[in-house]
């Protein structure tokens, strides 16, 4: 028998009603945050398949902004097309969870637009 252990971090997701849901997120299996949210059955469309082109995985960082890597030009260009994108907007598909993101809090924005 082979036992595989994954390093996990704890984050929170805030839904449309302002309720926060704790999630355990694996950090060493190559998933991006959009894929994690889909695996937890959040209603993320991910129309472009995670290429950062459609913004259907738009999230707002409520806590832990300093724990994330900077946005790249492609992500910034896509966010510029959204009327409700703000200073702390990110595309979940462009965030790869790592150990530094322990305690991150994200609000699902794409659900509010649907």
TrEMBL record:
<keyword id="KW-0479">Metal-binding</keyword>
<dbReference type="InterPro" id="IPR001041">
    <property type="entry name" value="2Fe-2S_ferredoxin-type"/>
</dbReference>
<protein>
    <submittedName>
        <fullName>Rhodocoxin</fullName>
    </submittedName>
</protein>
<comment type="similarity">
    <text>Belongs to the adrenodoxin/putidaredoxin family.</text>
</comment>
<dbReference type="InterPro" id="IPR036010">
    <property type="entry name" value="2Fe-2S_ferredoxin-like_sf"/>
</dbReference>
<dbReference type="GO" id="GO:0009055">
    <property type="term" value="F:electron transfer activity"/>
</dbReference>
<keyword id="KW-0411">Iron-sulfur</keyword>
<keyword id="KW-0408">Iron</keyword>
<dbReference type="GO" id="GO:0051537">
    <property type="term" value="F:2 iron, 2 sulfur cluster binding"/>
</dbReference>
<dbReference type="InterPro" id="IPR001055">
    <property type="entry name" value="Adrenodoxin-like"/>
</dbReference>
<feature type="domain" description="2Fe-2S ferredoxin-type">
    <location>
        <begin position="7"/>
        <end position="112"/>
    </location>
</feature>
<dbReference type="GO" id="GO:0140647">
    <property type="term" value="P:P450-containing electron transport chain"/>
</dbReference>
<dbReference type="InterPro" id="IPR012675">
    <property type="entry name" value="Beta-grasp_dom_sf"/>
</dbReference>
<keyword id="KW-0001">2Fe-2S</keyword>
<dbReference type="GO" id="GO:0046872">
    <property type="term" value="F:metal ion binding"/>
</dbReference>
<dbReference type="Pfam" id="PF00111">
    <property type="entry name" value="Fer2"/>
</dbReference>
């Amino acid at each position: 028998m082979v036992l595989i252990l994954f390093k996990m971090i704890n984050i929170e997701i805030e839904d449309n009603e302002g309720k926060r849901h704790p999630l355990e997120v694996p950090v060493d299996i190559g998933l991006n945050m959009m894929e994690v949210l889909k695996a937890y059955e959040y209603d993320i469309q991910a129309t472009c398949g995670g290429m950062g082109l459609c913004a259907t995985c738009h999230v707002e960082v409520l806590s832990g902004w300093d724990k994330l890597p900077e946005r790249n030009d492609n992500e910034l260009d896509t966010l510029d097309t959204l009327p409700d994108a703000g200073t702390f907007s990110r595309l979940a598909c462009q965030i790869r969870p790592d150990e530094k993101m322990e305690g991150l809090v994200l609000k699902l924005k794409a659900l509010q637009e649907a």
